[in-house]
Amino acid sequence: MFVVVKKVSDGMANSQKSFLHFSALTGTSSRSKLAFICPVAWACGVALAILSSAVAQSPSVSSPSDINPGVGTAPLTAGQPGISTSTTPTLANLPPRTLASGVLTVVPPDQNAGDTSIGPQDLNFVKSHPEIEWAPPNFPDGKPHFMPRSETLLELGRDVTLRHPVWALEFSFKPVRLIKVPIANASGAVEDQLVWYMIYRVRYTGGDLLPKVTAVEAGTGVPEFPDTVIYKSVRFLPRFTLISPEYGTSYDSQIISTAKAPIANRERVGKPLLDYMEMSAEPILPVSESADNSVWGIATWTNVDPRLDAFYVDVRGLTNAYQVEVDTSGRRAFLRKTLRLFFWKPGDVVDMQDDRIALGVPSFSQPERQREVLELFKLTEPLQYTWIYR
């Protein structure tokens, strides 16, 4: 206040000097001019004093970087004059969310001794090379002259059981959710699109199965229950497919870079959410009491039919177990062991981002309605998930 009063006094003194100089030049009477000019001069002096005080209190601007952070080499930091800092937390710096019990659905690894063997079946060359058959007329008895028929190449290739080690991962997930994020379309224009997503966690808990066969004689053996082993690490090569049994459509997961940050801010699991390419490059180490080597990932889809109410998500890559299916023509199909998750989304196409998607096949008190839903999911009883080969 003292500074402002001093500035006002100095301004009034300067105004009086200017008025006397003006009177000397014009030859007018000081008394006649004073009645008109003094109020104006006094007001100008007050305004000039206040303006000078405000300028003295404000920081000077020396370069564009002082105005626009990120331009130049001197970014603004907290504590500089005129820069206010906020202590209100944002989504980006909020702490990780502690998930309550039951929020994650945990699917334990599904290793069983049956997955370590395939067959019995004939090997490929048995049908593709009939010319090596020990048949008449060269061999009237249909076998070699000096060795049993069971030791011929064709007989050794028939009814063969193949064995291999099997590993598996624990899979935990939250139900599918919806979010709107900006995505560039084919023309390059950015527009908000509805993204279906599911976050998940994989852990390697060990307990893998290694086939064990006790040799009886050369080339023969008796299979036993597999040994339990654990590897240094395994790889998860995921493939997520969202399937609508209502409309017969399917959608493979996509990599949507602009969706990862909004989803990570929304979920706040405390670890990076990897897409399927990043997950494929990440070794999954065994978990222990001292090391939580769990890895989090995300599956995303766009342009999903908004009408669907029932759908399931197939997750492949959680195990190396597979089966071989042979049709009547001898063609082989390799079927991978797949985790199928069932979801139910009641609602309409309005404000879909607010719809709640439930895990599992719903139960209804009306038998007719329950039968329709089970037929839609191709099940005989309500389930949350199951293992299939596809």
Helix content: 10-25%
Q: Classify the secondary structure makeup into a structural class.
A: alpha+beta
What would the average pLDDT be, to the nearest integer? 79
- Taken as a percent bin, the fraction of beta residues is 25-35%
Report the oligomer: single chain
- Rg from alpha-carbon coordinates: 39 Å
Shape: elongated
Order of helices and strands: HHEEHHEEEEEEEEEHHEEEEEEHE
Structure in words:
With 390 residues, this protein is α+β, with helices and mostly antiparallel strands. Helix content is 23%, strand content 29%. The protein is built from seven helices and 18 strands. The strands form five sheets. Strands 10, 11, 14, 15, 16, 17 and 18 form a seven-stranded antiparallel sheet that branches. Strands 1, 4, 5, 6 and 13 form a five-stranded antiparallel sheet that branches. A two-stranded antiparallel sheet has the order 2-3. A hairpin with a 2-residue loop joins strand 7 and strand 8. Helix 1 packs antiparallel against helix 2. It starts with a helix and ends with a strand.
Summarize the structure.
With 390 residues, the protein is α+β, with helices and mostly antiparallel strands. The protein has helices at residues 2-26, 30-57, 124-128, 153-156, 257-267, 276-280, 367-377; strands spanning 105-107, 117-121, 160-163, 170-173, 177-184, 190-203, 208-217, 220-229, 234-235, 239-244, 249-252, 283-284, 295-302, 310-316, 322-326, 332-344, 358-359, 385-389.
What brief labels describe this structure?
single chain, 390 residues, alpha+beta, seven-stranded antiparallel beta sheet, elongated
